[in-house]
Every structure is written in structure tokens, then in C-alpha cells.
Design a protein that fits this description.
2 domains; binds zinc ion; alpha+beta; Endonuclease I-creI; two-stranded antiparallel sheet
Amino acid sequence: MSFSGKVKEELVKLENDVRHCQIAELAAILIYSGAVRTDDSGARMIEISSDAPLVASRCLTLLDKLQLVRQDTMSEVQRQNWLYLYKNDSSVIKKTLQIIKYNEGDDLVNPLVIKSLCCKRACLRGAFLSIGSMSNPEKGYHLEFVCSDAQQAKQLVETLLFYEIHAKVVARKKYQVVYLKESEEIVELLNVIGAHISLMNLENLRILKDMRNSINRKVNCETANISKTVNAAAKQIDDIQYIKEHYGFDNLADHLRQMAELRLEFPDATLKELGEYLTPKVGKSGVNHRLRKLGELAEKLRQE
Ligand SMILES: [Zn+2]
């Protein structure tokens, strides 16, 4: 299942036992998923498309908690087709729309039902369930709400601001998309809507990703150092070969001849290792000094 799907699965199981918050979440689901409609005969109906089973089941749970429907008296078939049932039950529809303070033609959650912070939280949860999604955090950080118009997007952005979450809006086809790109803000949103398990999974992925990045940086850095060492050794060997052919090791001072011979014998050795092979032993800077002398000599010979 996608990361987004797991967040929704977690949200659907979340307890919401406070009546005002239940109303706020239900209002968000009905408004944002566009579930409130008027049919051809002018009668209102509540309809949630069957391709959103999680949303439908959350909606049913909330209606039950608000004592608008009774899940336990429904058969499995009725439960699956409950939307059909409530198309034909005008009293339930009427009570439901009353409880969420719905006015004719509304496509915003009535501000009266999301006055408190706890209710705004519940509203955002309903919004995420209905029109929210997020990318796989292993690929990148992106969370969005696809709103049907600019008014709806504005209401969401303003609600998010209560939690200091700064969302942006972009038009996509006929929709207005409210989105978050910063991982910190996505984490904060998951926290606000109560998706704490998903939040922890996201944080773990974030840590892993950071670790992987820092390991990659280190490896790259070490590779660069190794190639620097290899290039330096190749140059030294080149110089020493030139001296051997155009000057002769016998003409070198003892300490330089010994250095030159050792370098040819151990082309892969580090300066420290070369120093260990010398008798008497010499430190890294001593080795460096001798190799530089050899380099200067080779340069001089080449110019002559
Ligand atoms: Zn509340």
C-alpha cells in the first residue's frame, strides 16, 4: 500500500469521541468530497463515490457516533450501499445537513463548526481523507489537497495557518491544489491530524535518507582523496623514471636514491608507509620533502 494509503488507513481507525469534533470531521468529509448534492428532482442527497471506501466507512462511523444512523442494524450489503440508502431517506439527510450547518450551495465547511482548534484539527483530518494525498517520502516530500475551487483552497490554507503550517496553492486543470513541500511541515500536518504512526515512519525514513546522503558525501570525498594520492604517486614515478634514464640513480645523493628506489618498488604505498620502509625511518613530511626534491630535479633535467 502507498504511504498515503497507510496514512488514511490510520486516520480511519482514529478515535474521535468528542461531539463537536465529530461534526467538524463529518462536515469536512461531506463538503470536501463533494458528497452533498441535489438530484434532478431537486431533492438533496448524500453520496460518496464507491472508489473511496475508506472515506465512506469513516463517514458512516461518524454518522453512527452522531446517532444519525445505526450501523449495528445494517446488514453487510446495506453497509456497503449505505449511500444509496440515504439517498432515499430524506429525514437522515436533513438532520445530517442540519448538524453540519450546511446552507444551500455551500462548498465551504461552515466556519461555525470549526471554531475551536480541536475542531479545525478534525476538519483537516476529514479534508486529508477526502482530497488529500502524499508522495512516497523515499522519492520526495509532497503533500497536497485537491480543492474544487479557490474559495475552498483559501479556507484550507487559512485553517493550516492556525498550526503555523504554510501551504501554497497552484492551479491544476480545473482544480486548486493546496500543497506542502517542506518535510517539517508535512510532519507537522501528520501530527495535527493525528497520524502519529505515519509520522514516526516518515521521521525514520528521513533519518535513513539523511544518513545515506552523509555516507555518500563521505564516500565521494574519500574517492576524491584516493585519486589525488594516486595521481601524485603516478607523477612521482614518472619523475623518478626520467631521472633514472637521463641522470642515473648513481649520481643521486644516498637519501634521494633510496627514496627513488623505494617509490618504484612500492608505487601504491602512502607517504607514511614509504617513510617506514626507509632506514633510518623518516616521517611523512621528510618523505614528502625528498620526493619534492626528486620532482624538482626531474623538472630541471627536462628543461635542459
Ligand atoms: Zn472540537
